Amino acid sequence: MRLEEILNIKYPFIQGGMAHIATGEFAAAISNAGGLGLIGTGGLSASDLKKQIEICKSKTDKPFGVNILLINPEVEEIAEIVSDYKIPVVTTGAGNPGKYIEKWKESNIKVFPVVSSKALAVRMERLGVDGIIAEGQEAGGHIGELTSMVLIHQIADELSIPVIAAGGIASGKQILAAEVLGAVGVQMGTCLLATNECPVHEKYKDRIIAAKSSQVTVMGRINGLPNRVLKNKMVNEYIEKEKQGATMEELEILTLGSLRKAVHEGDMTNGTIMAGQVVEEVKEKTSVKALFEKLYSDYLLEKKKLCAK
Ligand SMILES: Cc1cc2nc3c(=O)[nH]c(=O)nc-3n(C[C@H](O)[C@H](O)[C@H](O)COP(=O)(O)O)c2cc1C
């Protein structure tokens, strides 16, 4: 079954639950354009999540979901809220959502953990999740070790539940490649950052459009929290300090509130500009609707060309 049928959406596209970016309004815009919008809970309190759900519901009658970051200090309350609101889809990140799954299934919620290893995907399938989002290390934000090319193929081969591909997807060809690897649909983050509806600062959008893939790097490789970002003054300094053996406390001085600085204040010097390797594909500001139409028509065209070979 394709993702469109599983989630009752027009296109097989999920918007990644991006912390400080994936608001209720943005999720609604994605769902109205035919994908699945997600409200991100990274940095969100339980009461703010309720507000964002209300906003999302007031702006769309289409299905939407919540991305639960399992390291959120209010995760227990957040896990209850999605059940109370009977949110159609929950995706999870940064850990093992095992203890919540039974309750969510009782509330008829479709559960899709984001994973970066086959071992976790197998454990999740045993716990009865509806599908897996396999995210390769090309992705923007916090990442694992394996590339999409290796990870998606491995997981899709091993599991019998649907697999959604994430990491390094921003063109029709890449959507088709994910399908060939065994995915029923894709989750995207980076290519949505420059859409008109995306609530990041205009300077963030301009930086994304101008960026080359060679300007993308990973900070936090040494302290164990790898984060894919665009290079800037703060990131260069962070990586240099990491190499010199700086403590977490010393490093945190640089990153405290830095995602907010980039997203809300447009600080491109000291802010954390999260973006994936695929950033070079993002060439203009456009509406989500126009982007989805183009991605899907390019995908169909590429599929036709491949079948005709
Ligand atoms: C700016 C940004 C912030 C992100 N924040 C989160 C997050 O809070 N939770 C999460 O599960 N994934 C997060 N991600 C990952 C996305 O959900 C998605 O899986 C990823 O962007 C897909 O790869 P791509 O960037 O190559 O499109 C983030 C990605 C970006 C670009």
TrEMBL record:
Molecular function terms from GO: nitronate monooxygenase activity
Lyase keyword on record: no
UniProt entry keywords in alphabetical sequence: Flavoprotein, FMN, Oxidoreductase
Keyword Oxidoreductase in annotation: yes
Task of the protein: Nitronate monooxygenase that uses molecular oxygen to catalyze the oxidative denitrification of alkyl nitronates. Acts on propionate 3-nitronate (P3N), the presumed physiological substrate. Probably functions in the detoxification of P3N, a metabolic poison produced by plants and fungi as a defense mechanism.
Name this protein carries in UniProt: Probable nitronate monooxygenase
Originating species: Anaerosphaera multitolerans
